[in-house]
Amino acid sequence: MTTNSETWGSRVGLVLAMAGNAVGFGNFLRFPVQAVQNGGGAFIIPYLVSFLLMGIPLLFIEWSSGRFGGKFGHHSTPFILQSMDKKWIWKYVGVFGIFSNIAIAAYYCYIESWTMSYVFHSVVGTFDGMNQHAVAAFFSNYLDVTTSTTGIPYEALVFFVFCIALNTWILSRGLSSGVEKVAKIGVPLLIVFGIFLAVKGITLKAGVNGAIHDGTLGLNFLWTPDFTSLANPKVWLAAAGQIFFTLSVGMGSIQCYASYLKKKDDVALNAMSAGWMNEFVEIVLGSAVIIPIAIGYLGIDRVVELTGIGGLGLGFRTMPFLFEQWGPILSAVAGVSFFGLLFFAGITSSLAMGTPGMGFMMDEFKWSRRKSAISFGIVVMILGLPTIFFFNQGVFDEYDYWAGTVSLVVFALLESILFSWIFGMNKGWREITGGADIKVPLIYRFIIKYITPVMLILVFTGALLRPANDDWSRISIKGWQLHDESIIGQLQHKGAGPNNQWFAHSFQAEAPGIVDSIYATKANRFYFRTSAMDRNGKINQKVYKYVPAKHQLLVEKGDIVKTGSVVYSGPVINRVFYIDMARLLLLSVFLLISLLVYIAWRKRTKERRT
Amino acid sequence: MNTSALIMMVSVESVVLILTAWFFYKVLTTKPKPEPDSYSENDDVER
User: Fold this and answer.
1) Cα A522 → chain centroid
2) Neighbour tally for B47: CB within 10 Å
3) Which of A71, A173, A191, A466 is the most buried (most CB within 10 A)?
4) Residues 6+ apart with CB under 8 A from A390
């Protein structure tokens, strides 16, 4: 028998935990940036279409598969999927539902720890009096783990360990006493914080507290529809991708939460409630915080430029400086609200990432909840350390790409095919509508069987073969140049540039330009910078780090370098080495979980359990 | 704000708000299923 006899405390608790699972950093940091980059208000059209045709069906599939597997005592995807079809392959497909949670938690907890640290720094007033450059530099120093920003040595690491310990402790308390309690506090609080910041953002007035524009200018910019963008496949793929991130589908955590439901309990209304709550936080609150505030202080052009470095950069490098304009007390309140809401968004998601792996160990190896929680914490900490120490070498991004992006699409595609074509829509529909407290529109039977798998195939194919510059008109039967971030492009290290060997005796410039600065920081880090103007008059800068004790700099200020010019000599470990090691590590984790699933299956066979 | 942005924002946010509120209201007001259900807080406690 399993040691896993957990239950949810209340229905509201379950819905809030599921909503908390879905609401994450992406609601506040990724969604507005995606909207800005993909047609403003028009982005919402493909986004909502993707939500209706892909997001909601996947929610139905995952909630009902989870409850179905739970009937047989399964609380993780390997055996939930195998309970739906007996073929051996499905339990290994289900490995994705444990792997992606563990791998995502490894870097997600790191971001979560930044939010804890930034709440602390907002309270103690670290950012008081800092200019924009100093706030951005603070974040860079924070990421360079050996630099202390508070006097605490290895501060980033300390906060990361504390964050994992907190997650582990909450998980060890169980579903109703741990996860559910945090969701009941965290989700309402993050909504309150979000409303406060949204009101501040929208009511920003030009000329008051240093703002140069009204907050409504940001809303105007974000919501003005550019309908021509609807003809661009890039926009549709971006919208579909955002639906994945925002709903936490394709991960296995929804199935795990739902597996603790009983057969007659509703999944349809619960799924709708949690899903739409996430949409409220994303569309209503997420669009009204960082973009209106940032545009109010920095203007549209600067914010468009900043969105190029992504939502994380905008949130951590820029927002503390903008809050500082509101005076010492209000800036502290705003900082606590903004990073506090990110913290609650993060922790309610990272707790959900802990449960599938724990459920698996409790079901299959009779581990106690405490032991499973501690082992989850240790694994996530070990797996997370490379993202901390080699953040600037691209390890963090590799985790995010393979575990947090590709794995989700692959798993969602396979589970949707299993559910609608192998398990069968007759049984599937019975599972969705069984015990339902709402009438599920019959059209969803058709959508789940035909439309959702086709959309998922298109999303996967789009990611696999994404063309350079996202120019889909160049696709032809003779072939086309791939985007650096396409799956094939990533496998080929297309973005590695001239430094594409693991080890070398020199380092080559990665972009053309003029060396306009050679400098050292107070922390004895040495850099030089090249600048070049592109065809549109935009200046592109590239900063290179070198170590004088090991490297001989071969350029001087004013030198013109081309891509591939040798800029310093000496032993070099290139970024591509760290990237390959990160991939190898992720692959090892996947194989290790597969091995555990195999051992569990052998054990089940021996004990005559199915 | 220009008219098209305002229409877009108000219409989308209204739909999202109404649906979110309606589904959550349904969760709060739907009568619980007879025991045993999935939730422990409404379980009868032996005295």
Assistant:
1) 33
2) 3
3) A466
4) A396, A578, A582
For chain A, the average pLDDT equals: 93
Q: Which of residues 21-40 of B touch A (CB under 8 A)?
A: 23-24, 26-28, 30, 32-33, 36-40
Query: Which residues of chain A lie closer than 8 angstroms to B9, CB-CB?
Result: 41, 219, 223, 287
Domain spans, chain A: 11-38+103-247+273-403, 465-495, 503-573
* Exposure on the CB side of residue A170, measured as CA atoms within 13 A: 22
CB A608 within 8 A of CB A425: no
Question: Residue A115 class from Cβ within 10 Å (0-12 exposed, 13-18 middle, 19+ buried)?
Answer: buried
The interface pTM score, or ipTM, of the predicted complex is 0.89
Strand partners, A539: A533
Looking only at Cα atoms, what is the longest distance across chain A? Answer: 75
Which residues in chain A are closer than 8 Å to B2, comparing Cβ atoms? Answer: 220, 224
Phi/psi at A505 (5° precision): -105, 5
Return the DSSP state at A540: E
- Find tokens 């051992």 and name the residue: A599
Q: What pLDDT, in 10s, does the model give residues A519-533?
A: 998 778 899 999 998
Q: How confident is the model at residue A234 (pLDDT cuts 50, 70, 90)?
A: confident
Percentage of residues of chain A with pLDDT beyond 90? 79
